[in-house]
Structures are given as C-alpha cells and as structure tokens.
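Take one protein record:
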Amino acid sequence: MTVHLFIYGTLKRGQPRHAALSRQTFVAEVRTAPAYRMFNAGTYPALVEAEQGVAVEGELWAVSETCLRELDVIEGVAERLYARRPVLLQSPHDNVVAETYLYLQNIAGFRDCGSRWRGA
C-alpha cells in the first residue's frame, strides 16, 4: 500500500535528505490550501497549521509504508519533533488524501519562510 506524502523541506528533490525518497514515486509539484505557515528552524523548516495561513509550495510523493516508517524516524516522530498528519492541498490535487509532517515544538523566534523553503 502507498501513502501520499506532501514534502516541503529537506526531503524535496535537490535537498540534503532527498535520498530517503530514492525508491519512491514523485507525483507532482503542489501547493497546500492556505491553512499553514512555515518557519525556519535552523537547518530545516517547521510547518504548522495557522488561521492566517499561506499556500505552501512542495512536492507530492507516493511512498511505501516501509519508507514512511523510515521517514518517521528521520522526522523525529517518536521524539515528538514532528507528527504526521493529514494535509489540505489546492486544486487539482484537493481530492488527494495526503499527509505531511507538522512541527510540534514552539516556533517563537523562528523566521517565517513564506510559501517556499529555500534552505537554511
């Protein structure tokens, strides 16, 4: 079984952790619904849900459950750094059931990244 995953930072193509997706399937470049904000957490971005959100740019991937478990480790899910949650995407992908990694820690003092992660 595959899961659709919205990637917005260091796992994207050309980014440092992209190798973790090497055997997975790229679907499309996508944007979220304007329900999120992205912040610079140093060497990686922190995506959070926000009432005054923006449409965040990223990539949609079809990933295996095995890969998803590996990504959960990379993203610090057990340590409660991130949680994998449903994400709302814009048309024409708004009917895709997808998940993403939402940041769980305090974002106070982090710089807003706008709609796209450009690196640290």
Q: What stands out?
A: The CA atoms of residues 4 and 97 lie 7 Å apart. The chain has one domain: 2-106. Residues 65-74 form the longest helix (10 residues).
